[in-house]
Design goal:
The complex is a heterodimer of chains A (270) and B (357). Chain A is mainly alpha-helical. Chain A contains 13 helices and no strands. Chain A is globular, with a radius of gyration of 22 Å. In chain A, helix 1 packs across helix 13, helix 4 packs across helix 7 and helix 5 runs parallel beside helix 11. Chain A has one domain: MetI-like fold (Orthogonal Bundle). Chain B has 357 residues and is of the alpha+beta class. In chain B, helix 4 packs across helix 5 and helix 5 runs parallel beside helix 6. In chain B, the strands form four sheets. Chain B has a six-stranded mixed sheet with strand order 7-8-9-3-10-11, sandwiched between helices. Chain B has a five-stranded antiparallel sheet with strand order 2-1-4-5-6, with helices on one face. A five-stranded antiparallel sheet of chain B has the order 14-13-12-15-21. Chain B starts with a strand and ends with a strand. Classes of the chains: A mainly alpha (270), B alpha+beta (357). Chains A and B meet through helix 8 and helix 9 of A and helix 3 and helix 5 of B.
Chain lengths: 270, 357
């Protein structure tokens, strides 16, 4: 259906290539759905190990999302509004996990928090062990998910500008009041979509988790790890659990896209 | 309590001193990029000058010189800023926007709302209290922004072209509101509009190129401008030179006849200006018979409608800058005026005011 007439300048062959790209995304999902053992679907995803993995995944992803917000909001503020030497370098490092293979991240975390690691040795002395615990899962997920929140929020902060903050300050508001009552409410849509993306990234985390936290049922074996493990022995279970992750991912994307759409600034009349 | 400021920023070529008496409203006029908004930014604490100092009464806002680096942050200054855009916080209703200042000073939500309602009523915007900024027109939003600035109880109110973004129907209402609320209040109004200066200000400061070029009581500056910018605002032609018995002599030796104050006799060699309205200028083609004294060959640069007249802009060559004449459309058509034509401007000397610069 043609929704708007007028010239759009897209050559026809572009549509053909674009369709190829679309198929590359959709076809594997369809293939997987076709392979689902529907009669056994509910028993497969409600088995004890599946529920343990799903529960762990949701708990750790929620925890790492909270950690991303706690650490990511100040980072985004500092990157968007601050002015200090090394700012660009800091941004580059914060964004590094986006392009780093997660397994490399896992190894880096291991040499930081592991028994023989940079901080791990001292933590071990006071009786704290992080590697191969649920805390390690949360740290690994936060490591890979933090850039999503920072990028999304920094963009929102930059496009909001600081005019409102300047006005709020001249009205007598302390910097903390300005942050709480002006800045954060203004960038709430950006913060929300950043948090949703971080949650989704945490939920799908595999490589760093396996390297840094291992795969201990109920402790560190999250859903992606469970799927990988099941694939060896019970392909039907792996496919069923994969579909659960796809459903969660679709819900997350739908939620954040809907939020982004509804958060478009209302048109101000002249 | 009076306000005093001296500040300079070398990178912006900015160097100004300004003071306000208690209850005085000053209009700052000047071309774009003259440093008007920089001035407000420095006072509000949003821009840090290289050197300078400012105080309200005996409370120092900043003092930056060799030894002292005193800098009070914006929220402790008591200098509320109202910009060209209303910049109402989009997530708060009008009344909560106005209550923002009182809330920030630490009073309870209910008391802050009460104060907010009082100020909304002051700017005739009480019926808008429950609306979100997106539901307000430009004029309504700007009135709410005025209420918000006043509710913060500032000792000095800074207004940066508050009328510039409004359409011609909304501006008069806001101007009346401002006239009412600025009475007996220390305020600095940056504006492009002579009307704002006349209606709102006790005193006018003209800034050009980062410096104050002229200042004085509003009537005096606009009726007897000494700077070309102020003359342009007042719609007057301005010629500068040396005062003589008949009028003034321009640096290239041209004599410009005009009227002095009756009770004033010029010192020989004193610098002065001759000001005259475009309506006192007639346009002739070719040589003028008789000998009108104030007659100049000029080249027309522009013709544009001005009220029910045609404004003829022309250049005369240095040092007298552009001059304007207002003539009827019929006269313009009869003379066949067009840009690029060489004509003669004749100014009736009875309508030329001459006074010291």
């Amino acid at each position: 259906m043609i929704r708007h007439s007028g010239y759009h300048g897209v050559p026809r062959w572009i549509y053909v290539v674009a369709a190829g790209g679309g198929l590359l995304m959709v076809l594997p999902l369809a293939a997987m759905v076709l392979r689902v053992n529907w009669p056994q679907f509910i028993p497969l995803i409600t088995s004890e190990s599946s529920l343990a993995a799903l529960g762990l995944s949701l708990r750790t992803s929620a925890a790492s999302t909270v950690l991303c917000i706690v650490l990511g909001v100040p980072l985004a503020l500092v990157l968007a509004r601050g002015d200090f030497p090394g700012q660009r370098l800091l941004r580059a490092f914060v964004l590094l996990p986006l392009v780093l293979p997660p397994v490399v991240g896992g190894i880096a975390l291991l040499y930081t928090f592991g028994r023989q690691g940079l901080l791990g040795k001292s933590l071990e002395l006071v009786g704290i062990q992080i590697a191969f615990t649920t805390t390690a899962v949360v740290l690994a997920q936060t490591f890979v998910a933090l850039p999503f929140l920072v990028v999304s929020l920094e963009g929102a902060l930059r496009s909001a500008g600081n005019k409102y903050e300047a006005v709020a300050a001249t009205l007598g508001a302390k910097p903390t009041t300005v942050l709480r009552r002006v800045t954060l409410p203004l960038v709430l849509p950006g913060l929300a979509s950043g948090a949703v993306l971080s949650f989704a990234r945490s939920l799908g985390e595999f490589g760093a988790t396996l390297t840094f936290a291992g795969s201990l049922e109920g402790v560190t074996r999250t859903l992606p790890l469970e799927i990988y493990l099941q694939r060896e022995t019970d392909a039907d279970a792996a496919v069923a659990l994969s579909l659960v992750l796809v459903a969660v991912a679709v819900a997350v994307v739908g939620l954040s896209y809907g939020r982004l759409r509804s958060a478009q600034p209302a048109e101000v009349r002249p | 309590m009076s306000f005093e400021l001296q500040a300079s920023i070398s990178s912006r070529n900015f160097d100004m001193s300004l003071s306000l008496r208690e209850g005085e409203t000053v209009a700052v006029l000047g071309p774009n990029g003259a440093g008007k908004s920089t001035l407000l930014g420095v006072i509000a604490g949003l821009l840090r000058p290289d050197t300078g100092s400012a105080r309200i009464g005996d409370r120092e806002l900043f003092r930056l010189d060799g030894g002292t680096r005193l800098w009070s942050p914006p929220h402790l200054r008591g200098t509320a800023l109202l910009a060209q855009e209303a910049l109402l916080f989009p997530h708060l209703t009008a009344v909560d926007n106005v209550a923002f200042g009182p809330r920030s000073s630490g009073i309870s939500k209910a008391a802050a709302r009460e104060t907010a309602r009082h100020w909304l009523a002051e700017v005739d915007a009480l019926p808008l209290a429950g609306r979100k900024p997106a539901q307000l027109s430009g004029g309504q939003a700007q009135r709410v922004a005025v209420a918000r600035a006043l509710a913060a109880d500032p000792e000095l109110l800074l207004l940066d072209e508050p009328m510039a973004a409004l359409d011609i129907h909304a501006a008069p209402l806001l101007r009346r509101v401002l006239k009412r609320v600025l009475r007996d209040r220390k305020a600095i109004v940056v504006t492009h509009d002579v009307l704002d200066a006349y209606m709102l200000a006790d005193r006018v400061v003209v800034v050009e190129g980062g410096c104050i070029t002229e200042e004085g009581p509003t009537r005096q500056v606009l009726e007897r401008p000494r700077s070309h910018f102020a003359a342009g605002l007042a719609g007057l032609n301005l010629v500068t030179g040396i005062i003589t018995e008949e009028g003034i002599t321009t640096p290239d030796g041209r004599v410009f006849a005009g009227q002095h104050d009756p009770d004033w006799s010029p010192l020989p060699g004193q610098a002065g200006v001759a000001a005259f309205p475009p309506s006192s200028v007639s346009v002739f083609l070719g040589e003028v018979h008789g000998s009108p004294r104030n007659s100049f060959p000029v080249v027309i640069t522009d013709l544009e409608p001005h009220g029910d007249q045609i404004r003829v802009r022309a250049r005369t060559g240095d040092p007298v800058p552009a001059l304007s004449a207002d003539i009827t459309p019929a006269a313009s058509a009869d003379l066949g005026l067009a840009p690029g034509m060489e004509v003669r401007f004749v100014v009736k000397s009875a309508l030329v005011s001459v006074y010291p610069a």
